Amino acid sequence: MPDDKAHLDLAARLALRAAGDAEPNPLVGCVLVAPDGRVIGLGHHRRFGGLHAEREAILSCRRQGRDPRGSTAFVTLEPCNGHGKQPPCAEALIEARVARVVFAAPDPSPSKGGGEGRLRAAGVEVARSDASPLASGLAEPWIHRMRTGRPWVIAKWAQTLDGRVATRMGESKWISGEASRRRVHRLRARVDAIVTGLGTVVADDPMLTPRGVRRVRRRPLRVVVDPDLEIPETCALVSTAGQAPTIVACAAELLGAEIARLKRERLEAAGVTLLGTPASARGWLDLRELLTGLHRERGVATVLLECGPGLMGALFEQDLIDEAVVYVAPLVLGDELARGVAEGRVARSLTAGRALRLWRVKAVGGDVELTYRRRSPRGA
Q1: 144-217+287-374 is classed in which CATH architecture?
Q2: pLDDT digits over 37-57, tens only?
Q3: I need a surface site. Which of 47, 155, 193, 243 has the fewest CB within 10 A?
Q4: Which residues are catalytic?
Q5: pTM for the model
C-alpha cells in the first residue's frame, strides 16, 4: 500500500539516525499513525542499551498529549518478544492498545523473536510489508552478524563514469568531490574497523581516521592486511598508532619467526598490535578467519574497506563483501589501462560476477552515491 511505503520509509530514516550508536543492536525505527492518518508518534532505537523504537514512539505520542490507542505502528523490524536490556516491545504495543502493527523484516532471533504471534494472540492485527526496500534492509547487518559470526563488511570506492578508480599511473586524488569525501569521513566515524591493504599504505600513506565530522560515534580500529609484514615503519598509520588503534594482520608464522623479530619489536614499540592470521588455500591470508576473529575477539560489528583492487578482488572472490558504497564522478577517462575497482578474479562469463542489488541512491554535490547490497540477504 502507498501509505505503508511512506510510513515505513519514514521509520527507516529515523532508524538511520542512530547508525554508529545502536550497533551491535539492529537499527530500528517506529512511526505511530492515528486512524485518521495523522502521524502521532515517532521513535527510533537511539543507542545500544537504550529504549527500543516502539517504546520511544509511544513515549513521543504521550508527550504530545496524544493517545496511541487504536493507532497503527509502522516498524522496520518485527517487535521483539524477549527480555534483554529492555522489556519486550510487543508487550509495550499491547499495553498501549495499538490496533495494528506493520513491520518490514521478521526477527529471527531465538531469544527475542515471536513478536508477531504474541501480538496476534492479544488481538492486534499484524502484517508484514515489503513496500519499503529501505526499511526491509535495515536489519540485514544485524541478521548477518547473528547468522555468520562475522562483521558486516562495507566496501567503499570512488570511480569515474567508465568504472575506473585510478589512472594508469595510479593517480586517484581526487576522483570524487569534496562533498563525497565528507560523507566518507562521516561513514568512518560510524564503523568499528577500517581495513586496507599494504599496497594502499605504500601508494597513498593514508591516516584512515574520521576527520571534520561533528561527532565521532565510533573510534575505528585501523587494520592493515600485510601478509609478509612489510609495512613501512615511517608510514602515517604506524607513526600515529599511539593515538589511533592500529592492527597489522600478517601470516601467523611471522609472529614467532626470528627473521621478523626486530620488525615486530619496532612496530609494537610504536603502538601497533600484530595479529597472526592463518593462510588460505591460495597462500593469501584467510580473510574469512580474519573477519571472524575481529568480530569474536574485538567486538567489531561493522567494517569499512578502503583498499586497492587486489584486496578488493580477494574479498569479492571469497564472497565477504556485504555492501558497497560507490561514489560515481562525472568524469570519463577512456583509458583501457586505468585501474578498475577489483582485480585477481577469473570471470569467463557474466554469471561469474558478484551480483548486487541497488539499495539507496543519493546525489552528493556533482557525484552520485550508490549503495548496493547483496543480491539476496544471507538466510533469506
Answers
A1: 3-Layer(aba) Sandwich (3.40)
A2: 999 999 999 998 889 999 999
A3: 243
A4: 54
A5: 0.89
